[in-house]
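Changelog note: in this version the structure field was regenerated for every chain. One regenerated record is shown below for reference.
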Amino acid sequence: MFGEVLLIALTIFPFVYAIGYISEKLLLSTDFGSIGNTIINLIFFVGVIVHEVSHRLMDLLVGVPSHNLRVKYRDENSSKASPHGSVTPLHPYQMTLLQGFLTSFAPLIFGTWIIYFLLKVVFNPIFDPIARIISGICIVSIFITLSPSRGDLFFLKFSYQNDPQHGQYQIFLVILSFLISWLLVGSFNIIFSYEFFYYFIIIFCYIILKYSFISLGILINKIRYRKGRIPSKIRRRRLIRRRFKPEMVERYYMDYEE
């Protein structure tokens, strides 16, 4: 069962991303006439709301301070219909690679699972036809707005460049968490009704590993200190989040934008 979760992560998410990205570009580059364009903009607007709320929700879950959740239907300058939104991170220079990845791809992560549950409504005859139609429209709306914007991808790139060593360390922890979770699920035959519950096992393993390595680093430094050696602050920094503020930080103060 855990293998299916990995299959979803490695195939379904990229597939949904590709379909959503292609659909978005096709719709934006096609003129459907006055009424058609209005309908498309309204559909986009619903998706933008989900997109920006996903960013904000993930920010709360991974501990990234942010504010100014904004969603607008019209362009501020021309007053033309142009659904867009943004969420402003307060301290982008403090984001780790994992935080940057999860916040950047939050619309894809949440959107994929929302689409999964909405599809059950669409193809289940016990639901009211109107509810099924609305669910279908929401699926289309989420599909065409779940791909990360250039601003989202910038934060992913910047979070790695800000501290490459810590980013590589987090990648190592994620891979190790997957392997340990796979071993636990297989050994204890853990079965959940919904696949996304397995992600909580991965998150739990990641947290345990993270603080275990931090505790081990503190213990090693104490032993080195008692032996008359200076504790290695440089090596320990790879295990913790950076808190310093680099120069010219305003240069990187941007929004998540759709």
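Spot check on this record: The chain has two domains: 1-163+249-258, 164-241. The beta strands are 66-74, 81-89, 256-257.
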